[in-house]
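README: folding subset

This subset contains proteins for which both the sequence and a predicted C-alpha cell string are available. Records are stored as plain text. Below is the entry for DUF554 domain-containing protein (246 residues), shown exactly as it appears on disk.
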Amino acid sequence: MTGTLVNAGMIAAGSCVGLILKKGLRPHLEQAIHQATGLAVIMIGLNGALTNMLSSDPATGSVSSSGELMLVFSMILGAIVGESLGIEEHLNRLGDLVEDKLHLSGFAQSFVNGALIYCVGAMAIVGAINDGLLGDPSTLITKGVLDGVTSIVLAASMGPGVLFSAIPVILYQGGLTLFAGLLEPVLQGELLRQICAAGFVLVGCIGVNFMSDKFHIKVANFLPALLVPALWAGVKALLALAGMPL
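--- output ---
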C-alpha cells in the first residue's frame, strides 16, 4: 500500500497548492487555464488510447492496430448500461449533497473528473499489482509525481473536489494491491490494453467537457465500458473450457 498512499498524498498536496493559487486568479485567467487543461486532457486521452491500440513490428517497422471493435462495443454497451442505471445522476446527487453540507461549489464535477483521470491507465493497474506482489512502489510513486502536478492545475481550474478524488485512488489502487495475487494473471496483455484504451477515451471526453459549458458528455455513464473487455474475456474462457473456443 506504500505506493498508493504516496500517490494519494501527492494528489492531496497538489490540490492544496492549486486551491491556494485559484484564490488569486482573475476570471479570464481561470477560464484560460480551464481551456488549456481541457486541451491537455484531450491529448492525454488520445495518446493513451492510441498507445494501447497500436503496435509496431521492429523487424519490418510496420504499425498495426487492434481492438477497434472491442472499443466500439465497450463504449456502446457501457453507455446503455450507464444511462439505464443513471450513474452520473446518482454521483451528481451525492456531490450536491456534499456541496450543501460543506458549502463547496462545483464539488461533484471536479471530484468525478479527478477520480477518473487518476484511476484510468496502465500505471495505476500495473503499479498497484507490482506494489502488492513485489513490494515495489516505484511505478506508483512516479505516477504520484505526475498526478501531483496534474492536481495543481485541476484544482486551480475546477475546485476542491479534486482534493477528495484522492479517496477513490486509495480504494481502487489499494484494492488492486491487496488482491494482486489473484488479479496479476488476468490483468495483463490484451485485456489490460483493451481496458486502458476504453479508459483513456473517457479521459478524452473529460477534456472535451472542460472546453465548453454548452456541450457536456456524461462521462460517468460510460464507466461500465471498462468492464466489457473483462466480461468478454470471461465468456471466451468459459467457452474454451466447454470445448467451444472462439
